[in-house]
## 1
Amino acid sequence: MRSTRPGRARSESARLAIMHAAVRLLPELGFSGLTIERIASEAGVGKQTIYRWWPSKSAILAECVLEGLTPGFSPVVANSGDLEADLTEWLAVLQTALDEPGFRSLMRGMVVAAVEDDALRSALYENLALPSEPLLVERLEEARTSGQLRGSASPRVLAESLVGAVLYRLLATAADQSVRVDDLVELVAQPRR
Amino acid sequence: MRSTRPGRARSESARLAIMHAAVRLLPELGFSGLTIERIASEAGVGKQTIYRWWPSKSAILAECVLEGLTPGFSPVVANSGDLEADLTEWLAVLQTALDEPGFRSLMRGMVVAAVEDDALRSALYENLALPSEPLLVERLEEARTSGQLRGSASPRVLAESLVGAVLYRLLATAADQSVRVDDLVELVAQPRR
Amino acid sequence: MRSTRPGRARSESARLAIMHAAVRLLPELGFSGLTIERIASEAGVGKQTIYRWWPSKSAILAECVLEGLTPGFSPVVANSGDLEADLTEWLAVLQTALDEPGFRSLMRGMVVAAVEDDALRSALYENLALPSEPLLVERLEEARTSGQLRGSASPRVLAESLVGAVLYRLLATAADQSVRVDDLVELVAQPRR
Amino acid sequence: MRSTRPGRARSESARLAIMHAAVRLLPELGFSGLTIERIASEAGVGKQTIYRWWPSKSAILAECVLEGLTPGFSPVVANSGDLEADLTEWLAVLQTALDEPGFRSLMRGMVVAAVEDDALRSALYENLALPSEPLLVERLEEARTSGQLRGSASPRVLAESLVGAVLYRLLATAADQSVRVDDLVELVAQPRR
DNA sequence: AGCTAATCGAGACGGTACGTCCCGTCTTAGC
DNA sequence: GCTAAGACGGGACGTACCGTCTCGATTAGCT
């Protein structure tokens, strides 16, 4: 383990300014309209400072996702013992976030970016961001053992269906159309008697 | 009504060459790597000939989708009376198409393009391409009346969940991982006794 | 011989605007301070329009020299039959031009540029510009035959000495110090009795 | 008078490494291609060490000239009492140095640098380097009093003509063309009977 | 058959952004 | 306080495409 490299240390303030600028500009400009040059000038930073640390604009966004700079919704799925209630709450929170146009644009931009960058795709889908899918899978597995899960489909498929339904709404719909939370929950959860 | 304008008629061969070039290049270059200039040179066509007839590269792709130049899967959902069999077949066909890397790349590019262009989004999601979702909704509504649909969720939500699950797999997964067709069908269809 | 290439013809007005901008900016900025980007914006032209036709900024300047866009002094050496008078006049004209600070800076910039570009060096020294040396050699050869040339040194060496003396003054002297025209003439011409 | 300041003393080895690197790189890269960054890495030195002691790359070159790091010719003009012999020898030595391509490139680079930097211009022309012009003037003045100088032109003008002829050859000629030493001497010196 | 007019491939145009190189300054730890 | 190292904000480089604008050469329908 080497203690410190020689030379000036990386500027944390520049790093943060760049990431904040990226997140601020993405909804406004869309992914393809977002340029490194714009991010640099918005952040008050030289272009080289960006290129020194990130290979692409997607990579900047990936780091933003991993650092939680895309606020607005909780990826956490509660576990109250009642699957129906937990899913309803989780979807409602997600829905509320996606009802906000800025956040909608941000997430669309992220999805586009993720298509063209493996690191961002991992960051977005696997680790935490968009649907918090792994956490959801875990919750559904728990529900399987307690008999609250409908049918016999694997928790992974159920989770992907729920998240996919939200993703579909996000990408396919122009207007801000909400998902039908109740129906989605009913799809997965064993109705309580 | 004027049947034909004076002057030289639009060249059908140029039109087709452009669309074929676009579809051929999209998987290779990705949406952002695809340029009008490249399409023009690939098609052996002047740039102006493209700009004369299409407002953007997304518009070219939209026309390609509408003309069925993106081969490889049938958007048709059969109606044999047996929902389980029909869905299984439809998903299997879709899955086979998406197992081919070239087609996968093509569809990813299309999804990206659709995010930034309303016309293409309509062409892709509503009219026919990706999931043929309206046809699916129709089939599920029919199944509801004949009691083959599980639970009480609306056909639209069910359709979006199925299509969303496929979309999620397309976008979120790096490797060519298949969807679990059986589980997806089980999610929606009332199991036969 | 092909009559015309296909495609839009080169814009003469852009070509002239670029060359005029280069000549206007060179004295003000010096050769190393002169940038392609500045020339382009001064000329109201895209950078690519410059790079399409010239490989370097020196090449632009070379074309300017060849087209006579660097006004201010006559390279012509008169031949009145009186070498002493002819040389005195030629040097006086040259001196007057070089007394003007703008022209001085221009010529300094040209000399610098010529060091790093073969084409410009030819344009500057051999064809016409700075000293009109070939014309001077010719005049001196004529004088040799009519016995007006002092000593036996070759006309080429004499010409280079005269031009060199001017060049030396141009490069080595900060302030606008004139050459001593009389002494230079005396160096070369047989004094009239 | 304080003999030494507190703190670490300036590194003489770094100073020499920088100047040697500059002189080594100048012929290879030309003046505009020579960068501080390249000099620093060639010298194995931090950039700041250069900027701390020199204001510009011309200043480094000026110091090189003053320290005699540009080897290859003697600026000294002998005084044997025989002007013709002394000039012939001086020009021959100069010519030999300038016949070497590396030295030629070096001197061209120096001349370019001198155009854009007053300090270097002084160092190059007035103090010692290129032509040792002041020494030459002195020698010619001596010759005037002893009647060895041709005509009545001022020694300064004669010196500038000789040096200018060499300078002209250096700048204007692509190939390594020699000056005609005999003719140049004849131009200035009273022929011995 | 000639005229008119919109098309075609080609490619130059004024621009914007790219990703790189270097500027001159600043900030590290080490001697 | 100097050193090597190297990050910083900035500016220019030369390239790739953008979408527009000529070019001369077709090629259709209408006189």
## 2
Amino acid sequence: MATTYDAILVRLQAAFDEIEPGCDPVLRSSDRTDFQVNGVMSLAKRLGRPPREVAEEIVERLDLDHVADVEIAGPGFLNLTLRPEFLSDQVAQLVNDERLGVVAATTPLRVVVDYSAPNVAKEMHVGHLRSTVIGDALHRLYRFQGHHVIARNHVGDWGTPFGMLIEHLVDMGEQNAIETLSIGDLDSFYRSARAKFDADEAFRERSRARVVTLQAGDPETLRLWRILVDQSVAYFSEVYGKLDILLRPIDVVGESFYNGALEGVVRDLDALGLIEDSDGAQCVFPPGFTNRDGEPLPVIVQKRDEGFGYAATDLAAIRDRVDTLAADEILYVVGTPQAQHFEMVFAVARMAGWLPDRVRCEHVNFGNVLGTDRKMFKTRSGETIKLVALLDEAIDRADAALTERDADLDGDARRQLATVVARAAIKYADLSTERQRDYVFDLDRMVAFEGDTGPYLAYAHARVRSIFRRLDAPYEPTRATFALAHPAERALALGLLGFPEAFSGALTALAPHRLCAYLFDLAQTFTSFYEACPVLNAPDEIREERLALCDLTARTLALGLELLGIEAPERM
RNA sequence: GCCCUCGUAGCUCAGCGGAUAGAGCACCGGCCUCCGAAGCCGGGGGCGCAGGUUCGAUUCCUGCCGGGGGCACCA
């Protein structure tokens, strides 16, 4: 089905095209009526004619019979009020549409979403939260649009720290180390390795030597390294499971994966004449980047000591994603501080011809997580906060809140529900603010069941679903006409019809918060309807109609939340 | 110093060049013999400052003030 918005836009466009082809009507939803058209004024300006005169001309050419009533308002706005028969028809189409109006992509794209990226042998902490949650939402949005998503978890599994980590593993004994790591105690493992490295010269020497054997591909060293990686990935999977994140072990393609391609990166850049030697380092200087002294800023592909920097790895990854994975789009869900790095790496990849113009490559950046003191979110003692600790804390609070509200829930079911609510709370709080801004992590606020929160939305859904449990027979949506006589019914219908635009708005702008805002608005529109319009006690004809609206609301909330990675329980 | 970002109500945030700048929290006032009050209805309060472009600027541009980030071998 064509979305309501599109159906109107097509007709508007036809009328505008007759006056000036390609002119954007600027159709927007309106707070004073259903839709407003803002494009007349700028068109009139270009034509050098009075706006209202142009508006009249457009209205004459506009075919909105049985779709909307048009009124010229103010300096030249067109206010559109949808006709009841059109609304009825549109809602009826929604009833039979599992996708709730979202049209699947006609040409599926191959989209690489690079997100989460924790470090091997290191705890996942709040710093990984946003990448993980935002990346997962984008993953789901693209997937639902019908694209082929290739998730990539670019874990930090290589580099100098691994000499130290492997030596520590040797010291502990493999079994002992595996036990420590398998219970997820990555922090203490890393910390003790670090402590030894800082304190013990002999250990330092061994660590340095171990890095060399690791890079040389010594089988025994690689075996030990593999233990660290496997244990860590198993642990990450647990955390993802706890957070309900789509990433699987198979999506883990860490830095080490590209080791074999790094020399080729340098060689090929050199062959293209892009490499310059600068203080012994092999660099590319993409135009337009300067350092603090106004000198050209390099992308260091190979360091003076012949090691490879992460720029080399990122370039190798781009080549792999374009050439092997045949990506049409590559998204890096990584924090804003990396902005310049990615700009420069993308620039080099474009210069080298590795990243053709047809491939959209974007740094999906995001702001920091702050504490309520507006500083980087840390514990009081200044340590980073473990992701699992954060989630557990949220679960405890949700559990307490549920206990207070519903004493009937038994322990296990309540704990299970608390987990769902906690995930909803944390994810929604993260996703509902504009991605690029810093946001304040306030557990009290996000776990609250009141206001613009995940739990509120989950509750709104559960509340709608509760209506259907009171029915004698399973509900079958069959409704074909909608009178929408009550203003609250009409408002709800209009809200439901807005889902496809909210979805595509969130997707094209890579802005999950737009979908959040839509869902919250819909939930409020529903509860207003629910207060004003009895459903089960209404006369048959109206009751059927209202039940259909309730069903659509529940489906929209559930689908919208699912696309954000949030589960909507049947009851709570 | 250069570059990038952000500055909207007491607090946390929306606002895609359009009409009277919206929510949530907090605060005040109403609403449960009736489908889940985790709710609904109503109220007070705001675009950092100064210019510019435009028929129209919270939105685009410039400068200033204030916060955050980046600026060569860690990733």
## 3
Amino acid sequence: MMSQQQEIAQRIRELGFRLTPQRQLILDILSALDRHATATEIYDQVQSVSPAVNRATVYRTLNFLCEIRVLVAGTISGKTVYEIADPTPHHHLVCTGCKHVTVLGDHHFEELAAHLLDEHDFQADIDHLTIHGLCQPCRAAASG
Amino acid sequence: MMSQQQEIAQRIRELGFRLTPQRQLILDILSALDRHATATEIYDQVQSVSPAVNRATVYRTLNFLCEIRVLVAGTISGKTVYEIADPTPHHHLVCTGCKHVTVLGDHHFEELAAHLLDEHDFQADIDHLTIHGLCQPCRAAASG
DNA sequence: CTCGTTATTGCAACAATTCGCAATAAAGCA
DNA sequence: TGCTTTATTGCGAATTGTTGCAATAACGAG
């Protein structure tokens, strides 16, 4: 049984890339946070531990890790946020009222993906969708 | 019969906001373009017509018009793009291979929205979703 | 363990986006 | 038409995100 960190390290190397201390640090931070964070939040944490790490490196690392799907990026109230990709696909319902984020399983979306493939020959990459809307309490507050 | 521009003007005023020349100009540009554009593209066009308009104004206007749903924002290959909100909801399939954008009707998503409301008490705001994936030609190229 | 290849970093300049604040001007009203 | 209110703009500066390039260091080979 491998830790998540070890699996990620292996994935990076298998793809022919290098596991640098900077990349490890950013993964550690995101792992410890255990929630989504903005680039700036991550950069600040990096700074507090290793002030030598450059801002550009943080941005490049975040983009890199998204490309190889170690991280996923989403948009919550206009800001780009990053988190470690969960091995089991899931989605986020973001309430535009209270900003609360609900995690949602995948089954609703499999149907949709199947439709898109059948009818449009499009292989949708629905791993981590972020859907905005209003949760029940906020809906009640808005109409009340 | 009102023009789209007139409807938008009315909407802005009904909500208690003001219709300024800057806002009109940006709406005119987006309307003439008739496709999505980045903030920079829009700013450049604004400059060529009215060099006095400030860059900050363009950004603020774009955000403002999104908030009142006159515009919709999406992300295409990492860049934020804006376009005038179509009165009939539709969605975009963006191919991560060739970057081609397919416009899609709403019916696949109504079902999904219904599920989310029934089972999660969440009123999903699925007006303009951007779904990434691979189109048929790119899929063939990738596996071939 | 040492060496070579080359992916990755730091740097510094640049581009994009946001913010506070005083000046301006839309919209309603007399 | 002129006055009042206050949403909106322009400006300058700070913050955030990107890019080219030379220096560095990860990792496989010997």
## 4
Amino acid sequence: MEVNRSDISQTFIDLFIGGLKFTDEEFELLLSHMQLELIPRKCFYLKAGNISKQKAYINKGCTRTFTVDEKAHEHIMFFSFEDWWIADFESYYTQQPARQYIQAIEDCELLCISKCDLDKLEEQIPKLKLFFQEKKQKMIFATLNNLREVKSLTPEERYLNLVKKHPYIFQRIPQQYIAAYLDIEPPSLSRLRSRLSKK
Amino acid sequence: MEVNRSDISQTFIDLFIGGLKFTDEEFELLLSHMQLELIPRKCFYLKAGNISKQKAYINKGCTRTFTVDEKAHEHIMFFSFEDWWIADFESYYTQQPARQYIQAIEDCELLCISKCDLDKLEEQIPKLKLFFQEKKQKMIFATLNNLREVKSLTPEERYLNLVKKHPYIFQRIPQQYIAAYLDIEPPSLSRLRSRLSKK
DNA sequence: ATGAATTCTTAACCAAGGTTAACCTGCTTT
DNA sequence: AAAGCAGGTTAACCTTGGTTAAGAATTCAT
């Protein structure tokens, strides 16, 4: 669907016009390559096996990125909210089938741009290339920290970290998904919570 | 210590001369910026709190990169062997104090180059820049796969994966470090192994 | 070669999370 | 309003890994 200027969040405009100092022409050029996709709650933006052909800015809504193991258990790698960019990182850069699913937790409005278009645009607008290189760098740091956390903390400690660092997610994310993010079963999360509330 | 041409492994020469098609001048230029560091077994190449100021090519030996949690338990992020490049990724790129330790498991010969020199060299030799960009990309993929594994597999499954994919490490890495890599205690690894050998 | 020091294994006991099933609550649907 | 459903909680039981300590096996140093 074509992007209607009125659909775009102020945050998106601030990001490019205010933050990255895009000229109006550059911004229009960018917009002309973006499509608006509406993903209803519970629907998939990407399924494992498909190729992640575009990056999407979350204009509204939130998603979960997860894998499914051999025992059919889901493991959530991360949640994404407004102002995040989503794609299956490995699939996007290799153009090989993804191993992860990206599913809308709430109705989502996504501003999408294809890898092909973005690659060209990045050559025309170096600021854009730098912006995504920065994003990539931060994403690596976040992944390494994540790995460190998963390796060194107990589920309870990870839960407490989540409460401390991202309390807002409990307003928007169902418990079962929090459990899948912590890699425990829903009854364990319930127990853990009641154990903590008694202290 | 200055790098003596005779110290360098054939693999290193093949990498740059054969693989990356460096001219002799480029190769000499690279070598002129590298230093040989000898790290004896059990000594640290990097300690948490220090800044990772250089990249090092493992000419000989192997290392472990690990963190220490609040309960003083060590968690090994990965092992590195000959022909790998080591640094604390986040610290190297941000020049902030590292949160990880890098310790020699065997006596190591490292070919080191400072971030400052490498940044300059990469401008002079674009092939070098591309080479490290590729490395970085692969490192991200590996980290994401690692995270997926840690989140979705049991220690037993991770052990079996290790046996299947990297059987050689059992020749060189003590059990206690394998346990710290799997994020279990040594007695658990022993139990797991005896359980498996009975099947 | 011998003693000392690591490293690995084993055993006993404990704690935490998995599994299953029942139950409760709040929503949707008709 | 009643039935159905999804999400969350609770309880009972089981499995697995942590903890501690003791003992066996290796390795190292002299």
